[in-house]
Amino acid sequence: MAEEILRITGGRKLRGEITVQGAKNSALPLMAASMLCDGETVLGNVPQLTDVYAASRILNRLGFRCKISGNTAKIVSGEGETEIPDEDMRAMRSSVMFLGPMLGKRKRCVITMPGGCELGPRPIDLHLDAMRQMGVQIREQQGKIVCQAEHLHGARIPLPFPSVGATENVIMAAALAEGETVLTNAAREPEIADLAGFLNRCGAKIAGAGEGTVIISGVKKLSGTAYSVMPDRIAAFTWLCACAAAGGTVCIRGTEPKDMESCLSVLSAAGCRLGICKDRIYLDCSHPLRNVRYIRTMPHPGFPTDAQALIAAVLCTASGTSVIEETVFESRFKHVGELLRMGADIRVSGRTAVITGVSGLHGAEVEAMDLRGGAALAAAAAGAEGETVLRGLRHIDRGYDHFADAFNSLGGNAVRRVISSAVR
Ligand code: EPZ
């Protein structure tokens, strides 16, 4: 069977500039939230990702008319099914975000458990508990989770953990519920504020999004609108890390630097020179970089778990020892084994990775095991001596719009090839 790979020739400084894509982790909840609206919703700056196409398939299966053309998604409301087929639930780990809007709009939704393994188990107990508190009856039968409610009512919902997805599902379910919902210990990620910004423009009454307490006053109806997706802060950080790993000078346009403070401060601590002007981030970096003694991933505004593999790729060739602790997901070090094949010196025990800087990495055959881990391997390959063959591109295509083109616009040298798996 044919397989696609990326051949990356490293060892050359990066030089160039690009405009960052729209945020995957905002476009997906916004597409789900459009289900709450009557009429037509037009989303701009939507990145071209396999996860976006998967979300479009789910919307069309549920009776909405969703059309993606270029970076625009048009969603027209409609009636239809309330069950999301298992294959769609499995195609995208975050398919659980359709639960809240389906219950908000149709008071019924049948889903199956999203798969685990990629980053560790991906339970949805916080989502289901929150829905129960709003009056939803939930029962499991033959692996299906059947959720339905006579009517949804507001509630005081303290989240045990500031889960991004659970926060988004509560906001979407509460937007059309009867009465007021007060969500405490809510996730503060910028994508939450983007979701609330969209829903408020559709007529919702949501206050405090982006803070720890979000108050949603249910309304009778929401009307579709035009809205532009916020920039992808993790994709922006990806390109900065590719430059930090290879050395050079790049400019990333169309960013929101205030959403990236914890990421940018780590790059500065490692010795990169950063300049910020409105929506542009400039990075200039010459090697060797300095180690960063201790990085701990935390919910926003802490250092994001999605940036963990990316900064690890940078610190592999920093002088000294850096320690990274992953506190959000159970198993998010699958990229380490692949970095070792490139000559990195990293030891993992439990949720902690200890990186001892080496003078340089070399190219190797490596495989992406998850989205951000794959991007981290490409960043490492940019700075590695010789050629790297990167497999598992399906993970990268889930979250990066034309990854190789963006990488090469910054001066990288990546060629996407189809090979027969016999060559493997
Ligand atoms: C969102 O996932 C993002 N995905 C993830 O990005 C990101 O890593 C994560 O938030 C944390 O920032 C999207 O927005 C589509 P969580 P989500 O609920 O909502 C546990 C990427 O690379 N948990 O905040 O699934 C969970 O297992 C992806 O772009 C429960 O235990 O993250 C994890 O350990 C990867 N029970 C932790 O909370 C629940 O009911 C954080 O999960 C829900 C979550």
Count of helical segments?
14
Structural class: alpha/beta
How many domain modules? 2
Overall geometry comes to: globular
Strand content: 25-35%
**What gyration radius follows from the Cα positions, in whole Å?**
21 Å
What's the CATH class label of the largest domain? Alpha Beta
- In total, the number of strands is 25
Average pLDDT level:
96
Give an account of the 3D structure.
The protein has 424 residues and is of the alpha/beta class. The chain folds into 2 domains: 2-20 and 231-420, UDP-n-acetylglucosamine1-carboxyvinyl-transferase, Chain (Alpha-beta prism), CATH 3.65.10.10; 24-228, UDP-n-acetylglucosamine1-carboxyvinyl-transferase, Chain (Alpha-beta prism), CATH 3.65.10.10. The chain is built from 14 helices and 25 strands. It has helices spanning 24-33, 50-61, 86-91, 99-106, 125-133, 164-174, 190-201, 233-246, 261-269, 308-315, 334-341, 371-383, 393-399, 403-409; strands at residues 2-10, 14-19, 37-38, 40-44, 65-69, 72-76, 108-112, 137-141, 144-148, 156-158, 180-184, 205-207, 214-217, 222-223, 226-228, 248-253, 273-277, 280-285, 294-296, 321-325, 345-349, 352-356, 365-367, 386-391, 414-420. The strands form 7 sheets. It has a 4-stranded mixed β-sheet with strand order 23-24-1-25. A hairpin with a 2-residue loop joins β21 and β22. α8 runs parallel beside α10. The longest helix has 14 residues, at 233-246. The chain is globular. The termini are close together. The structure holds ligand EPZ. Ligand EPZ is lined by residues 24-25, 28, 94, 122-127, 161, 163-166, 189, 305-306, 328-329, 371-372, 399.
